């Protein structure tokens, strides 16, 4: 790495190198029933992995996220393999399940760490999640938890985008209120059109700033799927993996905005265009981040 990290931070190598396999109840970790199907296991893993990936960790919380991700990855290692799953169901021991074959935990963890934020993983999860009953349940749960505070709802629901999802989310919530599934909270019911428009305006502003940051870092063409650019989320994943300081916000803001782009080829068929991921050192990232913070502070003073 180009510069030393503070004692509270973990290096990229530390995050991708797991400790010994944890002792867990894999069904509990992934919030699954004992009769969960392979597809349900895969879906639960993808959701948990994206939500708890160490690349989303705020500074100083890398180890906490790593420990959570290790539990999630190990739970998936047990339940995704029929033999290991059957052995666990019989013995109740993850240690015995993992040690009875040629399972390499370190290699498996490193692969999951890398692949959980790949373009394919994010796009696959997005297609399954957006518009699903699971997303609806998450939306209504967040609505109830935050008592109609839509700012917090959008922070909570994965891959949510106020620009694209506001009307759809409100239709779901309004129907649930009519059906008596959820309470009609005052904060939701009394929210003015001005407040709603302001939320969308702020979201557009943040999206523009994200685009400017991508341009500063030289990955804007890749994120937009330019003529010579690669898949948007491949570039995004590289950007996220390479720089921990700003990861959490960029992951949610950009992963949804820049889906894996497809480019039309001959015969009208579409193909995904892949290019080598950019390498961005921490010094350059920190410089751009400071510039953005100064601009934001200046705008607030003028407001």
TrEMBL record:
<dbReference type="InterPro" id="IPR018253">
    <property type="entry name" value="DnaJ_domain_CS"/>
</dbReference>
<feature type="coiled-coil region">
    <location>
        <begin position="193"/>
        <end position="220"/>
    </location>
</feature>
<dbReference type="InterPro" id="IPR052594">
    <property type="entry name" value="J_domain-containing_protein"/>
</dbReference>
<feature type="domain" description="J">
    <location>
        <begin position="25"/>
        <end position="92"/>
    </location>
</feature>
<keyword id="KW-0175">Coiled coil</keyword>
<dbReference type="InterPro" id="IPR001623">
    <property type="entry name" value="DnaJ_domain"/>
</dbReference>
<feature type="region of interest" description="Disordered">
    <location>
        <begin position="1"/>
        <end position="37"/>
    </location>
</feature>
<feature type="region of interest" description="Disordered">
    <location>
        <begin position="260"/>
        <end position="285"/>
    </location>
</feature>
<dbReference type="GO" id="GO:0031072">
    <property type="term" value="F:heat shock protein binding"/>
</dbReference>
<protein>
    <recommendedName>
        <fullName>J domain-containing protein</fullName>
    </recommendedName>
</protein>
<dbReference type="InterPro" id="IPR056453">
    <property type="entry name" value="HTH_DNAJC9"/>
</dbReference>
<dbReference type="InterPro" id="IPR036869">
    <property type="entry name" value="J_dom_sf"/>
</dbReference>
<dbReference type="Pfam" id="PF00226">
    <property type="entry name" value="DnaJ"/>
</dbReference>
<feature type="compositionally biased region" description="Low complexity">
    <location>
        <begin position="1"/>
        <end position="18"/>
    </location>
</feature>
<feature type="compositionally biased region" description="Acidic residues">
    <location>
        <begin position="276"/>
        <end position="285"/>
    </location>
</feature>
<dbReference type="Pfam" id="PF23302">
    <property type="entry name" value="HTH_DNAJC9"/>
</dbReference>
<dbReference type="GO" id="GO:0005634">
    <property type="term" value="C:nucleus"/>
</dbReference>
<dbReference type="GO" id="GO:0005737">
    <property type="term" value="C:cytoplasm"/>
</dbReference>
């Amino acid at each position: 790495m180009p510069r030393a990290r503070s004692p509270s931070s973990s290096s990229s190598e530390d995050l991708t190198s797991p400790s010994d396999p944890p002792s867990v109840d894999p069904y509990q970790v992934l919030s699954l029933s004992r009769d969960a199907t392979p597809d349900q296991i895969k879906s639960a893993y993808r959701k948990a992995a994206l939500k708890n990936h160490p690349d989303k960790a705020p500074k100083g919380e890398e180890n906490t996220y790593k420990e959570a991700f290790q539990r999630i990855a190990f739970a998936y290692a047990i339940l995704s393999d029929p033999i290991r799953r059957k052995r666990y169901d019989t013995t109740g021991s993850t240690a015995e399940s993992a040690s009875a074959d040629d399972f390499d935990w370190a290699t498996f963890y490193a692969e999951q760490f890398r692949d959980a934020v790949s373009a394919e993983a994010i796009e696959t999860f997005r297609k399954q999640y957006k518009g699903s009953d699971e997303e609806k349940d998450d939306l209504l749960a967040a609505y109830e938890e935050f008592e109609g505070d839509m700012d917090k709802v959008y922070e909570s629901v994965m891959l949510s985008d106020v620009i694209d999802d506001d009307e759809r989310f409100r239709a779901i919530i309004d129907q649930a209120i009519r059906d008596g599934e959820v309470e009609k909270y005052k904060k939701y019911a009394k929210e003015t059109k001005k407040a709603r428009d302001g939320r969308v305006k702020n979201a557009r502003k943040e999206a523009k700033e994200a685009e400017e940051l991508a341009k500063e870092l030289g990955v804007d063409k890749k994120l937009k799927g330019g003529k010579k650019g690669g898949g948007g989320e491949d570039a995004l994943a590289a950007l996220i993996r390479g720089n921990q300081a700003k990861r959490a916000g960029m992951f949610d803001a950009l992963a949804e905005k820049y889906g894996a782009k497809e480019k039309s080829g001959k015969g009208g068929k579409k193909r995904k265009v892949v290019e080598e991921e950019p390498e961005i050192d921490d010094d350059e990232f920190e410089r751009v981040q400071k510039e953005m913070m100064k601009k934001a502070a200046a705008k607030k003073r003028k407001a």
